[in-house]
Amino acid sequence: MANWLKVLLLVPALLAAAKPLVDFQVAQPPPLPKGAKQCTVEILQHTFANSYGSPAIVQYTPPTDCGTVGSWTGISLNFTVTSNGTQYDRLGTLTFQEVEIWRTSTPEPTSGDGIIWTHLKDVTRYTPLFAKAGTFLLELDNELATGLDGEYATTLHATFYESSALYPPAPQANTIIPLGTLSNTSTATASVPPQFTINATIPQNAVQIYAELYASGNGEEEFWYYNTANEYLSDLPSGTTYGGGPFREVRLLVDGKIAGAALPYAVIFTGGIVPTAWRPITSYGALDLPTYFLDLTPFVPLLTDGKPHTFAIDVVSAETNHTINSNWYVSGNLQVVTDSSSEPTTGNMTQYTASPYAVTATTGSVGANGDVKVTVKATREIQIESTFKSGSGKVTDVVWKQSLSYQNVQTYASNNSIQASINVAQTATGTMLSTHNGIAAVADTFSYPLNINLTLLTPDGDSFTALFDHSYNRVLQPSPLTLGSTINERQLATGYFAITSSGNSGNGTSNNTFSYADPKGNTYTRQVDASLNNITQDHQGGSLAPSTAILFPGFPLSQLALGSCRLPGGRHFTIQA
Ligand SMILES: *[C@@H]1O[C@H](CO)[C@@H](O)[C@H](O)[C@H]1NC(C)=O
Ligand SMILES: *[C@@H]1O[C@H](CO)[C@@H](O)[C@H](O)[C@H]1NC(C)=O
Ligand SMILES: *[C@@H]1O[C@H](CO)[C@@H](O)[C@H](O)[C@H]1NC(C)=O
Ligand SMILES: *[C@@H]1O[C@H](CO)[C@@H](O)[C@H](O)[C@H]1NC(C)=O
Ligand SMILES: *[C@@H]1O[C@H](CO)[C@@H](O)[C@H](O)[C@H]1NC(C)=O
Ligand SMILES: *[C@@H]1O[C@H](CO)[C@@H](O)[C@H](O)[C@H]1NC(C)=O
Ligand SMILES: *[C@@H]1O[C@H](CO)[C@@H](O)[C@H](O)[C@H]1NC(C)=O
Ligand SMILES: *[C@@H]1O[C@H](CO)[C@@H](O)[C@H](O)[C@H]1NC(C)=O
Ligand SMILES: *[C@@H]1O[C@H](CO)[C@@H](O)[C@H](O)[C@H]1NC(C)=O
Ligand SMILES: *[C@@H]1O[C@H](CO)[C@@H](O)[C@H](O)[C@H]1NC(C)=O
Ligand SMILES: *[C@@H]1O[C@H](CO)[C@@H](O)[C@H](O)[C@H]1NC(C)=O
Question: Which of 42, 439, 456, 482 could form a disulfide with 125 if both were Cys (CB 3.0 to 4.6 A apart)?
Fold first, then answer.
């Protein structure tokens, strides 16, 4: 995770603090029926010390005490982790039956009483995987070294909700096909570039195919929204940022043809830019990275020939040659619904309008004082239609449309030849809709505005502040098999960090306004603010709100006596107390 915007926090032991700091990401509790009988099983317990390339691997067998296997009304996971010491934020991937089902990252720990977090996730859409025995794999590449002693002690439980007359079995795909490495010994995620490809054979009686994509930037792509168009990179002091520009599009191609594209939400990990802004409330998405849904059903007539077809996932930029830096981690899965007849589905793709790349434009200016301003814009329209007939005789007309737009404005203001402020204002918006005989199947209307003002207070950049205004607004129906949701989330966070010879200091605030609603009538709202590691207000409401308030202990902020920090210009600091 070497990067100039990545800061590692080291907090000394605290006086008389009785409990670990409770970190959390604002999110809705799983929208599963509290009234249903529940069976909880432990999937795994594992401590990640020096764990690069050494995932926890366990064998899973479905529980038989919560009704017929696979007939559950819902499934949720509880991932609870503690850590004590000093450590970077790390990426974690949960791979089940070769399918990635959860991408997460770790809050940076503290020494003394350490930290603890619990994140609950609704995984009902992966019911076909939970209905059979197989391999569960948690990869969390951690490293111990001098000054880096934080281990991550993890526990993963699954809770199965029994179905009944009141709570019917959840709808489910007939099969889930992994788009990943197919390894039983390491994560399903693949590193791109280069483009990831896999050959897969689709059941010949397929009548619906829904794709889900996982994607996150890492290394030189962790702060991809801060990467500058190559054309202007030489106008900035070397080491200010990386090239490749800020536009990123995650593409899914079927036999070389674009099937759909996603504009990713910018997840900021807890060591990102100013770590004090992300403690104890992580940035949105850090514990449960959003995923992206495309309707592949228009490709059914091309895929039901019983032969293997090539599925490719890549991430491309607005640069002339569309290249990006290293790297993004990607994977995906296809949820396939088959016809009651075993006869092949046949038909035709009747319209295909999708260019290989988005339409993009980069403009910019360089002031006499060295100020640089770069704007990158992109739009994309996709329309793919098919008509096909299932073996049982049903004719389906399917239409898949995407309309995406993107803008990123970077402002690098100089002050006596140092880059004094580095601001980014990005917005990604779009609508996606598929219909099957006129009925909506996949629908996604989203808006992800991101504004960051990073100000270097000293020429060395060893003291800086940042202001984040970041939102996740999404009305999503991943497929007709999966409960949709409307989420509006806004995070206003600030942070200050200073590195001095006598020790580091820092502080942060985070204000969060969150609302959730779904078609089953579940609701949840939360307004929660933190300042200097203290929760200053916390109001939860809606049908999913816990009946007893969860109290988060106050956590005194001590001087950050030790520290290591990466900053613009590639400078790297390690301060000993
Ligand atoms: C999650 O699991 C932890 C133990 O790993 C447990 O203490 C906690 O109560 C669980 N939370 C929920 C909501 O089930
Ligand atoms: C955290 O680690 C330190 C150093 O190893 C140890 O002294 C302390 O007891 C640990 N705290 C907890 C809560 O385990
Ligand atoms: C992975 O496990 C599955 C079933 O558990 C097995 O069918 C497959 O051959 C294994 N793959 C490898 C590469 O070992
Ligand atoms: C997919 O199949 C094609 C044709 O057989 C082959 O050329 C290609 O190497 C295969 N790709 C992968 C990733 O296996
Ligand atoms: C793409 O363009 C960049 C900038 O001109 C260059 O550094 C890079 O090598 C090119 N990549 C490829 C694969 O052509
Ligand atoms: C597909 O196109 C062929 C040739 O035009 C036609 O005979 C067939 O009826 C079409 N299939 C469907 C399901 O529309
Ligand atoms: C943040 O930067 C934007 C430019 O991206 C600027 O318009 C705005 O005034 C800045 N806000 C603050 C509080 O400095
Ligand atoms: C320029 O930097 C100095 C500190 O080096 C700071 O006091 C001053 O406010 C900065 N001016 C601007 C316009 O950012
Ligand atoms: C954080 O510390 C800086 C520098 O001491 C101070 O200016 C700022 O007001 C502090 N912020 C908060 C929220 O206390
Ligand atoms: C956060 O909310 C508090 C009130 O709870 C307010 O004083 C503060 O200015 C807000 N911070 C930001 C960054 O909006
Ligand atoms: C945290 O909140 C508690 C209770 O309101 C207060 O006593 C304490 O001073 C606060 N700590 C900080 C660092 O603001």
Answer: 482
